[in-house]
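Dear colleagues,

As part of the handover before I leave the project, I'm documenting each prediction I ran so the next person doesn't have to rerun anything. This entry is a single chain, and its sequence is reproduced below.
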Amino acid sequence: MGDLHNSCSTLPIVGRMTNTWGNWAGSQLCRPAVIARPRTTDELRRVLADASSADHRVRAVGAGHSFTGAALTDGVMVSLERMNRVLEVDRSRGLVRVEAGISLNELSEAMHGHGLAFPNMGDINVQSLGGATATGTHGTGATLMNLSAAMHSIELMLADGSTIEVSAESEPDIWRAARVSIGTLGIVTAITLQAVPSFVLEAVDRPYQIDAVLADLDSYVDGNDHFEFYAFPHSPLALTKCNNRTDRPEKPAPAALEWVNSILLQNYTFEVLCRIGQARPSLIPSINRFAARVGGYNNAVDRSYRVFSTPRHVRMNEMEYAIPREDAAEAVARVKEVAERDDFAVPFPMEVRWVAPDDAFLSPATGRETCYIAVHMYAGMPWEGYFHAVEEVLEGYDGRPHWGKLHFQTADTLRWRYPEWDRFAEMRKQLDPGGLFSNAYTDRVLGPVG
């Protein structure tokens, strides 16, 4: 991260400053020299000019939901939270142009007002669109690609303050690099999305024996529009989530019932269970078996974006790997064995999801049908040993880490996993030859520019 500055300076467009920035999990902290919150591209251009003059590197930050050091800087941190407007909607073509700082929740609500929606989403909706796409955020669905695949065109501000608009037709190589770039090519200021007509999902959550699910995994994955499951260590159950399109009218759960299920049980009660497990690790197997028995039942018929997203208040650290779909059942069983080892006390379930292949150079799903396996550890509990052990398992399946979640890889260990790694490196050198948009994390996982 470099030397920490003792205080943050201000720019006219910065607003109120604080000395320290931290991510949602509280695990990544830095003290930028400047935190800028521009409202327009002209203001952002001034920020980049001043950063270059001061020899500061620049990192854009979204909502802080990355678990890695992707946003950290002791130079200039740029938040696009004030660049969050919907700019244009072409309902007939399903095209929606927005500023990159808009949150997924704000954008979903706005698009629904025009009869449009994301084709797929992850389970966190407070992320900014720019941050979520830059790290390869995804949902689940064997025929559906990650969030960045919905980008029709991208407006990118380069280190010299100029802007370019790239698409599959105009600049195919830059386009494939910019869709998942960890913010290293420039600052994404606006995005035109290819949306789909709004749709309703029927959500059915049920616990099943995990051995039975793994034995018949393809039927679950292919038999549902969106399928995923959670598996607690020491429990024989998989908490399955099947979300399918329906012609039924939306029928949200009563507010009181939704609060009990989403907030009381999945957050407050789970937080208490995690704290008990932290204080008494020997109780974790029993706690996990209890949580799996009581946490797996739900039915809902609602707008797609309301079904996709769930409130997350329990702080944790997370690692997620993308592996070939055909290895999913075996890999899940092996990760579960690791989580149940006596030397690890794991109160969180693993989460397992699927996505279709895409062609972004650095997408973890590039070129192959993919299963994502995510593991978590309650904030404040040691995670390094557990994550190292899981990573060792998933490396055996040609695993690629999620760019916004914890891992121990470097550019040297990652290069061979991405068929077009060198083409991304060429685009990075072309667009940011001086490394203005780099930091310690990008230097580690992508290498220095050039």
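Residues 41 and 189 are 7 Å apart (CA to CA). The domain at 21-79 is CATH 3.30.43.10 (Uridine Diphospho-n-acetylenolpyruvylglucosamine Reductase; domain 2).

All the best with the project,
I.
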